[in-house]
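Model it.
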Amino acid sequence: REPASFSNTIEAMERTGKLLDRVTTVYGIWSSTMNDDAFQKVEQEMEPKLAAFSDKITQNAALFARIEKVYKDPALKKMTPEQQRLAWKYYTNFVRAGAKLDQKSKDRMSQINQKLAGLFTEFSQNVLFDEMNDFLPLKTEDDMDGLPQSLIDAAKATVAAKDMDAAGAISNTRSSVDPFLTYSNRRDLREKAWKMFISRGDKGGTHDNNKLITEILQLRAERAKLLGFPTHAHWRLENAMAKTPERAMELMEAVWKPAIARVKEEVADMQELADRENAGIKIAPWDYRYYAEKVRKDKFDLDQNEVKQYLQLDKLREGMFWVAGELFGFRFTPVNNVPVYHPDVQVWEVTNLETGAHVGLWYFDAYAREGKRSGAWMNAYRNQERLDANVTTIVSNNSNFVKGKPGEPVLISWDDAETLFHEFGHALHGLSSNITYPSLSGTAVVRDYVEFPSQLLENWLSTPEVLGRFAL
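Modeled.
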């Protein structure tokens, strides 16, 4: 066997697992966007097996010895910064996964990781179960008082799809609950909607997560001690900017007092308005969004519904493309000759504006549906690299907008528009990747940096250049 070198060890690792990467990409798509009963059984079986497989790699003593030799070889300092970082990343990840433990500790570590993988899967499936099966029925038209027409249409579509005996229904997802809490004039129903949403996985019975949380915390604590850390938080923050939980808490406590003071001011404004209206209530959590909107209208004559009519999803998407062209020189062209996993998914080819060179593909999965987790996120389906050949990236943005009636534009809130631009910032980060090694591709950067491109891009939404062209 040849002595360990960067090429026969680190680069060799970069070349392994290509087929598994492709399979787990498809697996991840189904897990987050097409998660039904049949797939959940696959998850329950496979997650512990995948954890065990990962441990077999990181706990391989002979492999780690070669990685360590390359990492500690003075010759590494003469290599490129990218190569130095890649060697550091392999060495650090192996150590943090327990590569230096004795065999007994490694065995226990693997048992813990497999158990945690199963618990994490059960936890997320419990939350998804409540999102898919809990609804707030709106029994009469009066129960929809105050709701914008788009939300009324969605509520009616829900009862039609579920064959429910009601005038409408609010799904237990953020994309349905948040606007209901903002606009519903029915305080009793706002309370029910709020409690339904925050109680996902916390209602007792088969799908309750409280017992799982206790077990997860215990296993994390045991794993941290095996690795030589006082707590899971110490392990988690060791290679982050904060370094220690104490420093992280110091930052949070510095923010806490002014944040609480600001919340008290906002709630006082809400309470004052409620008192003026003789509402006879004390502001509660299910009132926050509703009265925040009323205060905004009272103080600034600003109505989100008035703003929303200018925020069409399709036009904002074109606005994002325009920003990407101005800032990064990208052109987005719709394509129909690539496979998609659901009819809702649309795909664009991304090319260089000046040269026409292919940059990658951008998938957009915009709408909420059963089996899709709440929220918005970005994924890389394929990483950019040029280790052996030039491989372009495939990235996706995923949202949970509520579909309107066929042929009608989908209108979104200002907050959702900011989130749309934010997540597109992650996609642009991936599309802008220009590296050799796949493990360093796209958003595979230090955790403290990964949100910077997205937080930067979301600020372009409010510029006159974007609003003047696309908020129409």
